[in-house]
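input
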Amino acid sequence: MNASKVCLVIGAGDATGGAVAKRFAREGYTVCVTRRSLEKLQPLVDEIKSTGGQVHGFGSDARQEEEVVSLVEHIESTIGPIEVMVFNIGANSPNSILTETARRYTKMWEMTCLAGFLVGREVAKRMVQRPHQADSDIGVLGQRHKGTLIFTGATASLRGSAHFAGFSGGKMALRALAQSMARELGPMGIHVAHTIIDGAIDTEFIRTLFPERYALKDQGGILNPAHIADAYWMLHQQPRDAWTHELDLRPYLEKF
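output
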């Protein structure tokens, strides 16, 4: 087995997830990236390889327990120990509560929360088994820091808006999951963090459908995925006497 340290990014899309994967690859991590469609991952995999990074792409549905168990076991047994896991699945699909269906609502909860539970549980089970390490062995991470779990949240993690009942319900549940995991796993040496990404992100989706918002890019009015990734790297580098559990990231123009 390759002994290189691994960063696993669940939901490595074209914005935040992909930027996080590239950031950790630049720091020498072997990155394992997932999407439901392996084909859609190829441009990201090719880009990381072109810069000399180590990367593995997996087509995987994080809502399916058997697939998650198999994925984590494969990475741990054939690639390396997962030192960082970033859960970045979105599932933002607005709809009126008057026309929302049980099927859509359930699917959003599965993508935003159930999947986070499944991946978080499987990775944490491996992390807690790691032997204690001295500060000299792992640098700024601090004694007993066995790994980092980061869950990406949104404005909907804090409050529900009209037409976002399904998305808000799942994101709020994910936030509660992260809080519970942090309280249980922190004393075991695992840093659990939850991020609130509040604002439009520099993506093709925003550029095409919300051109007036995208026009704020030159003013620093929308989030740069690379800068979000820098914040995730910072979270992983924190010593355990000053861990951040919840980090709020928003453009200066965005209202609280």
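quick obs: The mean pLDDT is 91.
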